[in-house]
Amino acid sequence: MAPLPSPNRRFPPPWVVEELEKCFVVHDSNGQALGYFYFDEEPHRRAVNKRLAKDEARRMAVNFAKLPELRRLGQGSI
Prior knowledge:
Elements lengths: L15 E4 L3 E5 L5 E6 L4 H7 L4 H12 L1 H7 L5
Antiparallel strand pairs: 1-2, 2-3
């Protein structure tokens, strides 16, 4: 019996972060958008719209983009 081929990764790394006007977007290596992290730089609008500060959104997007590498380092334990 032949071994089953390993399934292709659905969202192949590396994942990259792109900054747009109002958000950060994380893309996989195929260009598929995986996550949007919206921010607002005006504190009043940020509170009303329940958005993150720009630095908070950037940190979340960068950490989200690290997930494939963290999973690989932990042998898939997350």
